[in-house]
């Protein structure tokens, strides 16, 4: 797919190189001893042109010339005929500044017309298999605000990567084994017993799950199970209760996420790793490679040695590593049970070794930061190059506000704001847009009052309104027999004012924004792009009248408006946000 910014940069480099070679050919310049390494950039101030080359500054020393003299020689030999540029000027100490012509602006509009919904896509991923694992909340209760942010971040990131040529896979890891499930079952058991003998006769465990959802599960279980406690042991009851609770909670999670417009390629059960013996096999592999030892009846991973190797390999000094106070991790407890860390290593081995993913991206809460290097190092110990192939996107907390005032929430007391409750208060569009509105590493303020406002202060409304405004315009003009023309019937020179030119430049940036979002694992730049595109359109719409204009002007401006509509819809689709035709 064509990236008009990249095409222009490449053409500037080519034009300058050809000018240099022509100047050498006619004796104006002497050939350099080696290659002159220069760059082409886009100046922040458009008064310095649209693109600038530093070739004269980079090559001055090698050619024994003043940069401006070298720039003058290059300028005299530049041939812009047939290029994207109308002029090139010398500026400052020797920069060559290029200004794009109508041909380049026409190329931007033509690219959107030709590529349609595929505009902005690229093949930088070259078909690499990439898994994005996100949310992966414990199935012991309703999903909360943190899950809401992780959900849209992971889903949007996977969409971005797919548009950039990666073969993406979305996965939810269900932690249906281990201590949290035991506590979940114990909590249901306690509520069942309280319901039977009275709350005053059976104290609820302090570390249990206190939410009303546990009471509801207990009531449902009692209604289904018959006499309780009858003759079964507590262990048997809790096993049945865990199975019952998971059979209710996991479908609810799937339903909530589906309402949130998130569909996974797979829901992977942790219990499957244990039942298949894969956790035990993975731990045995680590032992075979000499990375484990026994102490106090437990089996330990020599994490400190693995981390030491990892950090030294990454360039830390011995002294720096010595200050880190590295610690080891238990893989198998003295009672024979494997730890969550052991299962996590096995799960990631499964991703790489069994299922053949080239790269794995996990979206985690920032409180898991201490686990990142440990897991990567463990995978290094298995020979899976976890330090390079496992990417962890750490996500900061969400501060929930109502009209600027904090809304208190506590998962521990059961007063958390659940995802399904949030989506009853605001639209899915607003939730998805806002939760992706900041760099993952930054805390996010989510104001419920702002999210439902219908004015320019609400960014999702502002962007959607731009799309709806264009759709209304196109419908009105169609009723007057003014259809959107094909690019071949548009005179781009009639889009020569600043508002129109700046709008086309904004359209041209979209492929680069997608590329940067994939490179930095930061889809929030799509939000910022959309706000800027909407702002540019609103200014163009204010400055450049369409209805009632002379036919050729009307056609050109109508084409530009429809091009903006296409790109807005394209980017909103990546965010999982609708592009309404009227508001």
Which radius of gyration do the C-alpha atoms yield? 30 Å
Strand order of the largest sheet: 7-6-5-11-12
Report mean pLDDT, rounded to a whole number.
95
Counting DSSP E segments of at least 2 residues, the number of strands comes to 15
Low-confidence stretches: 410-414
Strand content: 5-15%
Biggest sheet descriptor: 5 strands, parallel
> What's the total helix number?
23
List the quaternary state of the chains.
single chain
Instruction: Tell me the overall shape.
Output: flat
Rounded to the nearest angstrom, the distance between the terminal CA atoms is 33 Å
Structural category is alpha/beta
Instruction: Give the proportion of residues in helices.
Output: 40-55%
Give your account of this protein's structure.
The chain has helices at 4-25, 55-63, 67-76, 102-115, 145-163, 179-197, 212-225, 234-259, 270-275, 278-288, 303-313, 318-322, 340-354, 369-381, 386-389, 419-425, 428-435, 448-451, 459-479, 498-508, 510-520, 524-543, 551-575, and strands spanning 40-41, 51-53, 85-91, 95-100, 129-133, 167-174, 266-269, 292-295, 298-301, 329-332, 359-365, 390-395, 398-402, 405-406, 444-447. It is α/β, with parallel strands linked by helices and 583 residues long. The strands form four sheets. Strands 7-6-5-11-12 form a five-stranded parallel β-sheet, with helices on both faces. Strands 1-2-4-3 form a four-stranded antiparallel β-sheet. A hairpin with a 3-residue loop joins strand 3 and strand 4 (95-100). Helix 6 crosses helix 8 (234-259), helix 19 (459-479) packs antiparallel against helix 23 (551-575) and helix 21 packs antiparallel against helix 22 (524-543). The radius of gyration is 30 Å and the shape is flat.
């Amino acid at each position: 797919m064509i990236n008009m910014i990249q095409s222009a940069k490449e053409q500037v480099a080519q034009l300058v190189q050809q000018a240099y070679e022509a100047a050498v050919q006619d004796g104006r310049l002497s050939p350099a001893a080696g290659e002159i390494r220069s760059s082409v950039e886009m100046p922040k101030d458009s008064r310095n042109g649209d693109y600038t080359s530093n070739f004269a500054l980079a090559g001055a020393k090698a050619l024994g010339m003043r940069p401006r003299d070298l720039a003058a020689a290059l300028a005299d030999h530049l041939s812009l005929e047939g290029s994207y540029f109308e002029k090139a000027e010398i500026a400052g100490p020797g920069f060559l500044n290029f200004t794009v012509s109508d041909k380049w602006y026409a190329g931007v509009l033509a690219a959107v017309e030709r590529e349609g919904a595929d505009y902005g896509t690229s093949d930088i991923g070259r078909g690499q298999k990439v898994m994005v694992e996100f949310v992966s909340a414990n199935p012991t209760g309703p999903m909360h605000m943190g899950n809401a942010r992780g959900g849209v971040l992971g889903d949007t990131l996977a969409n971005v990567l797919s548009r950039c040529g990666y073969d993406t896979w979305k996965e939810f890891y269900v932690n249906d084994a281990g201590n949290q499930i035991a506590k979940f079952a114990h909590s249901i058991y306690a509520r069942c017993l309280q319901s039977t003998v009275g709350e005053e006769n059976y104290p609820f465990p302090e570390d249990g799950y206190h939410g009303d959802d546990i009471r509801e599960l207990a009531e449902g279980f009692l209604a289904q199970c018959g006499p309780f406690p009858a003759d079964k042991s507590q262990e048997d009851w809790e096993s049945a209760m865990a199975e019952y609770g998971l059979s209710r909670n996991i479908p609810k999670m799937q339903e909530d996420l589906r309402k949130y417009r998130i569909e996974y390629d797979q829901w992977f059960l942790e219990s499957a790793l244990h039942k298949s013996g894969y956790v035990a096999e993975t731990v045995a592999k680590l032992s075979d490679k000499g990375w484990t030892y026994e102490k106090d009846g437990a089996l330990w991973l020599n994490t400190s040695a693995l981390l030491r190797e990892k950090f030294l390999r990454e360039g830390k000094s011995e002294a720096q590593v010595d200050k880190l106070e590295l610690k080891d991790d238990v893989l198998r407890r003295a009672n024979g049970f494997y730890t969550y860390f052991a299962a996590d290593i096995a799960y990631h081995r499964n991703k790489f070794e069994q299922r053949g993913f080239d790269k794995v991206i996990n979206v985690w809460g920032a409180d898991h930061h201490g686990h990142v290097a440990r897991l990567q190092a463990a995978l290094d110990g298995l020979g899976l190059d976890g330090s390079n192939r496992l990417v962890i996107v750490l996500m900061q907390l969400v501060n929930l506000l109502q009209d600027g005032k904090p809304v208190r929430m506590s998962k521990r007391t059961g007063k958390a704001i659940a995802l399904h409750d949030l989506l009853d208060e605001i639209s899915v569009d607003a939730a998805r847009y806002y939760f992706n509105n900041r760099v993952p590493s930054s805390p996010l303020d989510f104001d419920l009052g702002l999210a439902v406002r219908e004015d320019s202060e609400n960014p999702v409304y502002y962007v959607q309104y731009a799309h709806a405004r264009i759709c209304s315009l196109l419908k009105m003009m169609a009723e007057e027999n003014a259809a959107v023309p094909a690019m071949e019937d548009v005179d781009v020179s009639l889009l020569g004012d600043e508002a129109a030119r700046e709008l086309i430049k904004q359209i041209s940036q979209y492929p680069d924004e997608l590329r940067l979002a994939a490179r930095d694992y930061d889809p929030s730049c799509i939000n910022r792009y959309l706000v800027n595109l909407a702002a540019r359109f609103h200014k163009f719409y204010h400055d450049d009248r369409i209805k009632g204009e002379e036919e050729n002007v009307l056609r050109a401006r109508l084409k530009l408006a429809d091009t903006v509509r296409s790109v807005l819809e394209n980017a909103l689709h990546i965010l999982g946000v609708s592009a309404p035709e009227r508001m």
